[in-house]
Write a structure and sequence with these properties.
Two copies of one chain form a homodimer.
Chain A (H helix, E strand, L loop, with lengths): L5 H8 L3 H8 L7 H14 L5 H4 L8 E6 L5 H16 L3 E6 L6 H12 L3 E5 L7 H5 L5 E4 L22 E5 L1 H14 L5 E6 L6 H15 L9 E4 L9 H14 L5 E4 L2 H13 L9 E6 L3 H4 L5 E4 L2 H16 L7 E4 L2 E3 L14
Parallel strand pairs in A: 1-2, 1-3, 3-4, 4-5, 5-11, 6-7, 6-8, 8-9, 9-10
Antiparallel strand pairs in A: 10-12
């Protein structure tokens, strides 16, 4: 029986052709027992899936949407790439959707679900400022990934959405990781550490990382100086840019003659800051140290190489998309996944001890 | 009649609600006369589209697919971002699909059309090596963008697919633009110019840019030296990487003591090459000049800033997606659009005259 077709397999197993197709394509919507049986029959009869079987017409609703805020950030794009490949292997279509800064991504999601009958949604980037009611209306499995989410960090005085609705979330501990980066700079002897951040007026990644910066200063008994804070305020979801890092470092150097280090809440911002520092005639790290956040490929090759908080990009992307498919398949309940980041010390940072300060 | 609903408008115009929705949403699939009439009625009665009208359930087939080869290249990702936003404004979904190096994107497209009932396809990156027969089977409007396409450059001894099937294509003249970059290096006095390229064994962007390099040497009566060619051979669609640029520059410096310049067929490759040159203790541009190709944002901030062939990224992306929608709307026939690139001279290149060579 060398020319076994997909129809033969379906007949032998007593299931429909579409069920066989689901088994072959590793589709999550299939009873594991049924799948096992089908795969055993396929093994026995030597059926090799051909193109017409693989591309068997599927429901158009088999799509996952990726809603991205800050889409020009290479960090997010790297994650989309990994998740799209995973989605493709599952034979789902990946719908990419850029969300503007002034758009609410949950409303966008609700509309997309109605229009496209999605099977699941990944929210990437941006901030978590959603109500339990709006989350409950999404109607399909969804997950947040690298979204600034104060819910996870038990910030005082704010009600936790998680206490009212369970949702899935994958992130690093933005507050603690920033604290780690700034503690490292303090240990290197830096006493005038600037920060380039954004979104301080609302719950955001920038706010969380800024709070980590403040916490590190407090722990070491250092005074907080508002002059050392540069807040990016451009009106666009694309605030994590080299240009904003450049402008931020220029302003910090102008306003703080004693500045010896800058912590940037993203790598692209840090790379812009490096350029501004070099253009000002200062040396890195001899005059000014720079620390970024993310761990993008560009930071391994830039001159000087960038010290950074490296988020586990591939692991986070894989965990996120796997989690989503597990929820779609009913195998897992929404939950919070906090992953560890690490401080990677490269060439852009060094001692903050200065002769005149000694 | 302040509470005019979409149903009222439809009744007044004598059309269906979905037609009114198409008019409101600037959908291309609508008779221009009908649209004009509907918009006039809307203006007269003061109807303001609300969410329920805007999100009126649409056919799930209103999607555009973006098939990308080399998806980690920031140049392509920047284009996807622009085209996705355009697609979103047209109220279509953008399906993102990464195509592996060993996959034929036209076959992938044919399968997607069957599965998803797409309205149109953009092929981004990769090489043009398709037969008229396979192109004719796609079945929906499609366009190639920044695809290495020898068809456009009248390469001798090869039959042109364009003579047998009309297809839409947006690109720069890869051969002529590379020639321009290398002529510039020769004019600067460089006599030992390396190249980091890829895909020399088949029609490809790398081959076209390599042919431009050879042509420039020939024009100036310089001998071609195979030792000065580094061909990236990693097995993956992601060959345009900083790492490959790093390895390429290392090899070229090792094999060519007299090397004074490297032309790289992309900016990310050039940025990796810069890092390798600096790590070897050489100065840029005093010892080695580097020229890239693409014009990505990273090249404006890296140290030293990158001299490059700047493709008109935004204009190409906008022209491509506009062209596609025009074809979908029946307003335009497939055609070839060659756009001009420009040589942008920054800090990574300089004089090639050396005391010992004088």
């Amino acid at each position: 029986m060398s020319n076994t077709t997909i129809k033969d397999i379906a007949r032998i197993c007593g299931v429909g052709v579409s069920t066989v197709s689901r088994a072959i394509n590793n589709h999550p919507d299939i009873n594991p027992e049924t799948k096992k049986k089908i795969m055993a029959v396929i093994e026995e009869y030597g059926f090799v899936p051909n193109d017409s079987a693989r591309y068997l017409k599927r429901s158009e609703s088999d799509s996952i949407a990726f809603l991205v805020k800050g889409i020009s950030n290479p960090f997010f794009l790297g994650m989309v790439r990994i998740m799209e490949q995973f989605t493709q292997k599952k034979n789902y279509a990946a719908i990419l959707r850029h969300v503007d800064d002034d758009q609410d991504e949950v409303s966008v999601a609700q509309a997309l679900v109605k229009e496209r009958k999605l099977k699941g949604i990944v929210f990437l980037g941006g901030n978590f400022n959603h109500t339990p009611e709006s989350l409950q209306q999404i109607g399909v499995p969804y997950i947040f990934c690298t979204v600034g989410n104060e819910d996870e960090f038990q910030m005082e005085g704010r009600p936790r959405v998680r206490d009212q609705v369970r949702y899935a979330n994958v992130a690093v501990d933005d507050l603690a990781e920033s604290e780690k980066a700034v503690l490292y700079l303090i240990e290197q002897g830096h006493r005038h550490i600037g920060i380039i951040t954004e979104g301080l007026d609302k719950p955001s990644v920038g706010q969380l990382r800024f709070l980590g910066y403040q916490k590190a200063l407090r722990e070491r008994g250092m005074a907080f100086d508002p002059n050392l804070v540069y807040e990016i305020k451009t009106k666009s979801a694309e605030r994590y840019t080299r240009e904003n890092g450049y402008l931020g470092a220029q302003a910090l150097m102008r306003d703080n003659p004693g500045l010896t280090a800058i912590f940037c809440i993203s790598d692209v911002i840090a790379i812009g800051a490096i350029r501004a520092i070099i253009d000002s005639g200062r040396k890195i790290p001899e005059d000014v140290s720079v620390v970024g956040y993310d761990g993008i490929d560009e930071g391994k090759y830039c001159v000087p190489r960038l010290t950074t908080i490296e988020q586990p990009q591939s692991e986070m992307a894989e965990a996120t998309i796997q989690f989503l498919f597990d929820m779609i398949g009913g195998k897992r309940q929404p939950d919070n996944l906090l992953m560890p980041a690490k401080l990677v010390i490269r060439e852009s940072s060094g001692s903050g001890y200065r002769p005149e300060a000694g």
